[in-house]
C-alpha cells in the first residue's frame, strides 16, 4: 500500500495541475470573450453616436432655401401718370393736376405786343383770337422767357416754337380750367429776338386735326434779358429787393402805352374752330 502512495500522489498532482491549467485557460478565454464583447459593444455605441452626430450635423447645416427662386421679389409699381409735353399735345398736358391754377406771374417782367401772321403776312385769325396780346417777358439769369396766355387751351394739339429754325423747349407753367380754359406756356429766347415761327395744330375732342404749318410771331420790339433784376437763378424769376415786380409793371406800362385797338378785341372775343388751314 505504501508502494502505491507515491503514484497516487503523482496522479493527483498531475490531475490538480491539469485542472488548474484548464481553469486558467477557461478563465483566460472568458476574459478574452468578455473583452471582445465589451469592445464590440463600445464600437457599436461609438458608431451609433457618430451616425447620430452626422445626422444632426446634416440637419443643422442644411443651407436655407432660396426663396427668390420660387418667389420673385415684388417690384414697386410706378403709378405716377405721365403727361405729354406742351409742344407735343397741349390739350393733354393741361390734364396734369400739378399745373392746375399754379401761381406763375412771379418775378421781374415786361409786356411786349406782337402780331400773328401767316405766310402772306396776313393775320392768322385762329391764333389771333386764341393768344392774348401782349406777351409777358420774364427776366432770368440765363435768357429772357416769353410767356403766352393761350385761350381755349383744350382745343390745341401741337404747339411748337422755333427761333431761326431751332426748336425751343416749351413748358406749361399753369392752367386755369374751364370755364376759363387758359394755358400759360413759356419758352426761352435769345437777346435781340423779334420774330419766331409757330408750328401748331388744333383738335376739338376726337375730331379731325387741323394743321397750321407756319405762323409768324412778330414782337413790337426786340427782346432783351435783364439778369440784374433777378435774385436767384430759377425757372420762375424772382425780383430783387430794389426792383420789385411792380416796378417792372410800371416800366411795362410805359413801353406798351401805344397798344393798338385790336388788343381789346383779342382779349374779349372767343375763337371759332375751323377745319380749314389758315
Automatic annotation (TrEMBL):
<keyword id="KW-0134">Cell wall</keyword>
<feature type="region of interest" description="Disordered">
    <location>
        <begin position="42"/>
        <end position="84"/>
    </location>
</feature>
<dbReference type="Pfam" id="PF04650">
    <property type="entry name" value="YSIRK_signal"/>
</dbReference>
<dbReference type="InterPro" id="IPR037250">
    <property type="entry name" value="NEAT_dom_sf"/>
</dbReference>
<keyword id="KW-0732">Signal</keyword>
<keyword id="KW-0964">Secreted</keyword>
<dbReference type="Pfam" id="PF05031">
    <property type="entry name" value="NEAT"/>
</dbReference>
<feature type="region of interest" description="Disordered">
    <location>
        <begin position="230"/>
        <end position="278"/>
    </location>
</feature>
<protein>
    <submittedName>
        <fullName>Iron-regulated surface determinant protein H</fullName>
    </submittedName>
</protein>
<dbReference type="InterPro" id="IPR050436">
    <property type="entry name" value="IsdA"/>
</dbReference>
<feature type="compositionally biased region" description="Low complexity">
    <location>
        <begin position="53"/>
        <end position="80"/>
    </location>
</feature>
<dbReference type="InterPro" id="IPR005877">
    <property type="entry name" value="YSIRK_signal_dom"/>
</dbReference>
<feature type="compositionally biased region" description="Low complexity">
    <location>
        <begin position="239"/>
        <end position="270"/>
    </location>
</feature>
<keyword id="KW-0572">Peptidoglycan-anchor</keyword>
<dbReference type="InterPro" id="IPR006635">
    <property type="entry name" value="NEAT_dom"/>
</dbReference>
<feature type="domain" description="NEAT">
    <location>
        <begin position="105"/>
        <end position="232"/>
    </location>
</feature>
<feature type="signal peptide">
    <location>
        <begin position="1"/>
        <end position="40"/>
    </location>
</feature>
Amino acid at each position: 500500500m505504501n508502494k502505491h502512495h507515491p503514484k497516487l500522489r503523482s496522479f493527483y498532482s498531475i490531475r490538480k495541475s491539469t485542472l488548474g491549467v484548464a481553469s486558467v485557460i477557461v478563465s483566460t478565454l472568458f476574459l478574452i470573450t468578455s473583452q471582445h464583447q465589451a469592445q464590440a459593444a463600445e464600437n457599436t455605441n461609438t458608431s451609433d453616436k457618430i451616425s447620430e452626430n452626422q445626422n444632426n450635423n446634416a440637419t443643422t447645416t442644411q443651407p436655407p432655401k432660396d426663396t427668390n427662386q420660387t418667389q420673385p421679389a415684388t417690384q414697386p409699381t410706378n403709378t405716377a401718370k405721365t403727361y405729354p409735353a406742351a409742344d407735343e399735345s397741349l390739350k393733354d398736358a393741361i390734364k396734369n393736376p400739378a399745373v392746375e391754377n399754379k401761381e406763375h406771374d412771379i418775378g421781374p417782367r415786361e409786356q411786349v405786343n406782337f402780331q400773328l401772321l401767316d405766310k402772306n403776312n396776313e393775320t392768322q385769325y385762329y391764333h389771333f383770337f386764341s393768344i392774348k396780346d401782349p406777351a409777358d417777358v420774364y427776366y432770368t439769369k440765363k435768357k429772357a422767357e416769353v410767356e403766352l396766355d393761350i385761350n381755349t387751351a383744350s382745343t390745341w394739339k401741337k404747339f411748337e416754337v422755333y427761333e431761326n429754325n431751332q426748336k425751343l423747349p416749351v413748358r406749361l407753367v399753369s392752367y386755369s380750367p374751364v370755364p376759363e380754359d387758359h394755358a400759360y406756356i413759356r419758352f426761352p429766347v435769345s437777346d435781340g429776338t423779334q420774330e419766331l415761327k409757330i408750328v401748331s395744330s388744333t383738335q376739338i375732342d376726337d375730331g379731325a386735326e387741323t394743321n397750321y404749318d407756319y405762323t409768324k410771331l412778330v414782337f413790337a420790339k426786340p427782346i432783351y434779358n435783364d439778369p440784374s433784376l433777378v435774385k436767384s437763378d430759377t425757372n420762375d424769376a424772382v425780383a430783387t429787393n430794389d426792383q420789385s415786380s411792380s416796378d417792372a409793371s410800371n416800366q411795362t406800362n410805359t413801353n406798351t402805352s401805344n397798344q393798338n385797338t385790336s388788343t381789346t378785341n383779342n382779349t374779349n372775343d372767343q375763337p371759332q374752330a375751323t377745319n380749314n388751314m389758315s
